[in-house]
Amino acid sequence: MKNYKDLKDLRNRIALVTGASSGLGEQIAYQLAKRGAIVVVCARRVDRLEVVSQRCQELSGRLSMALKLDIAQPNQIEQVVKRVESELGPIDVLVNDAGFGLMENALDFDMDVAEKMFRVNVLGLMYMTKYTALKMAGRKRGAIVNVASVAGKIATPKSAVYSATKAAVLGYSNALRLELRALGISVLTVNPGPIKTDFFNIADKSGHYLENVGLFVLDPEETAEKVVKTIGTSRRELNLPYVFQVMHHFYQLCPWMGDYLAENLFNKK
């Protein structure tokens, strides 16, 4: 059963995107709209969401909805899914993009922040996925996109907590994909490297990380386009830029060299 292939044509399909007020989530919303989807954008910043939703309507010529959502609150997640399904119709595409990071040594890390990061990056994603996938399962159709990170595969100094959350997303997504395949639901895990977005306004205390890793920095619009193109396919992972996929394989084959490169070449925080 491969009903997710029906979603190669996104016209009039309902797509819900979390973390859509800025960055990659915002750009994914626009790419979905360009393909004619009815886009529901969710985040905490309602004023910004309204702007994104209006732009989606302009791009798609269709309805768009902006819903305030704190992904750390499971009751809000359940209500958002119920509202979309009752007021708009069946959710066919879910993009879990909401998340945040902070670059700091593990021994100095505020554990209250660590708990919040797991609540947002991991548990929020899991709640949203479960509530939405239960609806998709009844229809035997759907596509789920979980935005993890290359940090979940290649950890570097000062990324211990963030890498742990993204490794959890990877593990969850890998098992979920196997469970949902028979229900006509695809699961794609996106593992981007650094993207030129507001993410680093919080994550990078030095203010120079993107500048230091300029060779590997991704453009959010181009990244979003590649993500949306995978919807309706059986692709299991999207690793960007490609050099990090090669690096991950090399890391597995030669761990000591991988550690050396992670401590030196990629340690720019």
From TrEMBL:
InterPro entries found in the cross-reference section: NAD(P)-bd_dom_sf (IPR036291), Sc_DH/Rdtase_CS (IPR020904), SDR_fam (IPR002347)
Transmembrane segments: none
SUPFAM superfamilies, sorted: NAD(P)-binding Rossmann-fold domains
GO terms for cellular component: membrane
PROSITE patterns named in the record: ADH_SHORT
Alphabetical keyword list: Oxidoreductase
GO molecular function: oxidoreductase activity, acting on the CH-OH group of donors, NAD or NADP as acceptor
Pfam families: adh_short
Similarity comment: Belongs to the short-chain dehydrogenases/reductases (SDR) family.
Protein name: Short chain dehydrogenase
